[in-house]
Structure formats: C-alpha cells, structure tokens
Design brief:
172 residues, alpha+beta, 8-stranded mixed sheet
C-alpha cells in the first residue's frame, strides 16, 4: 500500500498524519466526513435543490465510485481527512470536524498537491464558500474564473456555479 508521512509546519500539535490510498475499511469514515463536511461548507451557499439531494445515503456510492482516486489522512488511528483526485483536479477535499482548527488542512492540501504532480492543476470551490476560498488563496491557489460546474447526484447531474482555482505545481 502506498503510504507517506508529512509534518505540517503550521501544525499546532506536531503530530504526523499518515497518508495512504483509501481502502474499503475507510468507507464508513469517508462517508461521514464527506456528508458532514459537505453540509458544513455548502448548505448555505448552493441551491436548495442540491442540498435536499445530499443525504447521507447518497455519499456511500459516491465514495465507492471514487475509492481508487481517494487518499486518506490517518492520525491517532482515525481518518482525519481525505482528498479525491480526478485528472488534474482536486475533486474533493475534506477534513474531519475533530481535526479542524489544528493546523491539519495545509498538510492535507500539500499531500494532494504532491499526489497531483507537476503542472497546471485546478479545483472547484462553491461560490460563496469564503472560508475554503480564503484557505486556498493562502496556500497559493488563485481564482481564475466563475463558471458553471456539473455535480453528480443520485438523480443525475445538477449544474451549480463555482469558483475555479488554479495553481502551477512545480516538480520537487
């Protein structure tokens, strides 16, 4: 299993997160983190039609569909967060609530950037999600555009507006 460690320079507790490819055993934690994190970050800024579709049961098949592109961060025997990649995109990025405010988001994003490799990369941020936008900007991502973005739902795709963030990642 692919695994690597990364200590965050802004980590207040100096613990190390271990990053590895997601496995079937991680699915329950990933569903919980994604569902809870999605509602925390998006419920107030996306159309109500999407909010009503984002029930917990919808996240299990989505996690399973993207498991091969998912990396998890483990710390103290728990899943602290995860990211999903899709080509040159950081498709999903979430930190469990218990790990928020502890300097863990930046090392998680650094791991996602490292996994993407060098080149022009991007991510989508829901219009109005100013907390995430500020974090991405503080990490060197720049807002390149506001554009329509098709999101998957159990009822088929739905289009919402997102801020497209971009960053040119360099090889180490």
């Amino acid at each position: 299993m692919e695994q690597w460690e990364l200590s965050g320079t802004d980590d207040k507790e100096s613990d190390e997160m271990k990053f590895e490819l997601a496995t079937e055993a991680d699915i329950p934690a990933l569903v919980e983190i994604w569902h809870d994190g999605w509602h925390q970050a998006h419920a107030e800024v996306v159309p109500q039609a999407l909010v009503t579709r984002r029930v917990r049961a919808e996240f299990d098949p989505r996690v399973r569909a993207h498991l091969g592109q998912t990396r998890v961060a483990h710390e103290d025997g728990q899943v602290a967060g995860f990211f999903m990649l899709d080509g040159d995109e950081i498709y999903q990025f979430y930190l469990a609530r218990a790990f928020q405010g502890r300097g863990k988001a930046r090392p998680l994003l650094m791991a996602a950037e490292s996994a993407l490799g060098a080149g022009h990369k991007w991510l989508a941020c829901s219009v109005g999600n100013t907390q995430a936008a500020g974090f991405y900007e503080a990490c060197g991502w720049h807002r390149a555009a506001t554009l329509p973005y098709e999101v998957e739902t159990s009822d088929g795709p739905l289009v919402i507006n997102v801020w497209r963030y971009e960053k040119l990642l360099r090889a180490d």
